[in-house]
Design goal:
The strands form three sheets. The chain has a five-stranded parallel sheet with strand order 9-8-7-10-11. Strands 3-4-5-6 form a four-stranded parallel sheet, with no helix packed on it. It is an alpha/beta fold. The longest helix has 29 residues, at 59-87. It has helices spanning 2-5, 8-16, 27-36, 59-87, 123-134, 195-206, 240-248, 259-267, 281-292; strands at residues 23-25, 42-44, 93-96, 108-111, 139-142, 165-167, 183-188, 214-217, 232-235, 250-255, 271-274. The protein has two domains: 2-170 and 324-333, Rossmann fold (3-Layer(aba) Sandwich); 183-314, 3-Layer(aba) Sandwich (Rossmann fold), CATH 3.40.50. The chain has nine helices and eleven strands. The protein starts with a helix and ends in a 44-residue tail after the last helix.
Length: 336
Amino acid sequence: MGHATRCIPIIHALLKANYEPVLASDGEALLLLQKEFPLLKSVELPSYNIRYPKKGKNLRFKLLLQLPFIISAVKREQKIISQFIEKESIAGIISDNRFGVFSKKVPSVYITHQLKVLSGKTTFITSKIHQQYIKKFDECWVPDTEENPNFSGDLGHLKKHNFKLKYIGVLSRFHPKESEIKYDLLLLLSGLEPQRTLLENKLLNELKNFKGEIIMVRGVFSTSEITAKKNLQIVNYLLANELEQVISQSNLVIARSGYSTIMDLAILGKRVFFIPTPGQFEQEYLAETLQEKGFVPYAKQDEFTALRLSDLTKFSGFKEITSTVDLKLFKLFEGK
């Protein structure tokens, strides 16, 4: 979902530059983009069907078992894209972490903040494999700044590389604005199952005695409802403009430390407490790095308690920054 949300400003910029974007994704990510851009054509791609285990320590083994299915999905999406380009007049491709969405017939761009893929003892191997995929594209765009201060740290910055790299600045669908505080605490859930539900249950239990006004955005396209006490409002999903308003109206935010979430909250200058997805080395690294820089605190999921929110007084929070997409990036696609 984070990859889809950070593409929203790219899509708006393409429209501003008089291109006609075609959306291509799967599952809830595709549904999100279709809701945001109901007038745009869309193509459904095969799902990678990545699932996380309940215990984070089993993540690498779980992902290894899923590797054949991921490779199969990449091959199928390559076939779909190849057939689509044969039928349509396509100027270029922008792929956010979809390995098989590229073509030698049109300029192809890969978006990622993970030039280095953290996986514990196998980080060197996973990083090299990812970089080999990146080399298949004409350009790689990193949604961050090249110099310090930056948000991706070592993930998005390599000492050496052999592909065309561009730093395009922070990407967010949001824009800072003055808002009156309505909620004391926003619980912003995201990510794959079962960890999303495990965090939801954890927060509902830990914060049952919280006295202030709470709003929980579950991050699911679901019709199911859960009961809540009087000071807790629960919504399944919000469109970009609605979510921007709720975040702006919230004094504190609890969220996963996914990179797209970090960019959104940084743009709005929020005070945040991060809880990384168990076993996700990337989210753990980002949360730890931001804590070391004095921006925000974090806790592991099984160690979080309501008392840990007092840690927020020791940190500065994010300061509002701007996010713009330079239309000159699209010169790559001119005349194609």
